[in-house]
Design goal:
This protein is mostly beta strands. The chain is built from 2 helices and 8 strands, in the order H-H-E-E-E-E-E-E-E-E. The chain starts with a helix and ends with a strand. Mean pLDDT is 77; it is low at 5-25.
């Protein structure tokens, strides 16, 4: 009888341990030196404003970070895009890609768009499209670095 109780207790403790909340994500308050390259003098000021780290939450829920590492004079942009699949969980994905600036909007991989608020260059609207407009996500992003 005691071995059955012990077995049940071990199973319950194992199940509780696997249901623990995810580890909190590390904040992006700094990036390694050289990660962000200052825009060259021949890069338009409106484009240069994108340089840095932008943080937001898709639909006010899922954390996302856009790290604009380098803006080229032709409008191409080296970008790292991070997001958390679990609410408040650790950063799960880190994707480095090439974006582009078209008509003042930063487009990343065809799915993510970031548009700086002309009245406040430290705030941007983010739009995420995946497949159809039904999968549309919106976020306010704030420039933190």
């Amino acid at each position: 009888m005691n071995s059955a109780r012990t077995s049940i207790a071990v199973i319950c403790l194992t199940l509780l341990a696997t249901c623990a909340p995810p580890a909190p994500q590390e904040p992006i308050t700094a990036v390694a030196p050289g990660t962000i390259v200052a825009p060259a003098a021949n890069v338009p000021a409106a484009w240069a404003a994108y340089s840095g780290v932008w943080l937001g939450k898709w639909d006010g829920v899922w954390d996302a970070a856009i790290i604009v590492r380098k803006i080229h004079q032709d409008g191409l942009v080296d970008v790292t895009y991070r997001w958390a699949n679990d609410v408040g969980g650790p950063w799960r994905t880190d994707s480095t890609t090439l974006g582009r600036i078209e008509n003042g909007v930063l487009i990343i991989g065809g799915h993510v768009r970031l548009a700086i608020d002309p009245a406040n260059p430290t705030v941007a609207r983010g739009d995420f499209f995946h497949g159809t407009n039904d999968a549309h996500r919106v976020s306010r992003f704030n420039k933190v670095i």
